[in-house]
Amino acid sequence: MSDIKEKLYQLCIAYVQSRMKASEEAIAEAQQAANNDTKSSAGDKYETGREMAQQETNRNLAQLNEANKLMVVLNQLSIKSTSQRAEPGSLVITNNGNFYISISAGILELDGKSYFAVSPASPIGIKLKGMRAGDEFILNGKNYQIQSIQ
Known about the structure:
alpha+beta; elongated; 3 helices; single chain; six-stranded mixed beta sheet
């Protein structure tokens, strides 16, 4: 089962790296646009264009910062360890879905199965914390039964 956790971990790494790359490319494009914007007789147009490019750069820098934080979280996960209780790095199999407690990366497809990469701080991550196989909980009116934890 740790092979699945390793693959899910790698999918999360790829997810974060793609977010980082997209942010870096958008920053470079915004800076290029600002550099190519030449001053014309309409000074306001020039200043507005540069300001918009700066705002775009700032927004993408914030996204890049968030992606870096996700990478730090992933680097702290132990994918080799197993626990009887759900914790960060655990793969939790329930009757209503499979959950990889790591980062909020949405649905990860692996070997024809769907896994939800969820943050420990998400509503389901909070519910899962400390639970064991056989435990049950209700979230949003849905009953979950934990079948196994890896």
